[in-house]
């Protein structure tokens, strides 16, 4: 079951003090940070270029065998398959469209960051990848439902919003279950708990990663403030959308259903309403069920592609 994979958790247990001194020291050294692949870096540039065309992405995909295979595989998946199979990159790109191509290129390019050679950390990284892809596809669906107007940056922000958790997991695999039990139950105390145990939190670490990799400023802000969207002054709309998608993903992954999700209690949704107004947010609210269903389907397909 797709949802059962979402509920893999690490139980918090009593333990000796977490050995994080080395981790914290390394976080000040940019050269120790994971780096985006050349493909991911080029894809991010294309995704954030308002003048980019589908042909630009097709050229990028054709030069990379892994990307070409991933795009073809996704275009022939149950989520996108038509009457006839797609057999060329150009046809696949046309079927997926600009955003679909952007998403698969970004996801495949980021796959290497979500990896660890330590078995326990590998399982946690896989759970975080599922959450990242689900949040990203939800953000895209909610963006479309509200006619908000983002052109791919909402997917990038959703994909990378919890990258700090991944870095913590990879750098301190033995300590990670105590820092972050991966229950997908987050509240106002989440970051405070991380700071109490590790002396830092995943938003701070993620922001350092984003700056070290020269990610676009809006994405940096989404990573840094998705737990506190009210603190964001530069890009409040993107941060509020990311926070809303994150909260929705957490609820569905934790409860394995949408029932009882209360958007009015979500800080991201509150700030989304403040920025967009009640009418647009009403459209977003009405689309929650269909957004979850579509995002689940697309996440399944994306997971199969990134596993290749």
Automatic annotation (TrEMBL):
Domain HDOD: 33-229
InterPro entries, alphabetized: HDOD, RNase_Y/CdgJ
Annotated protein name in UniProt: HDOD domain-containing protein
Ranges annotated as spanning the membrane: none
Superkingdom of origin: Bacteria
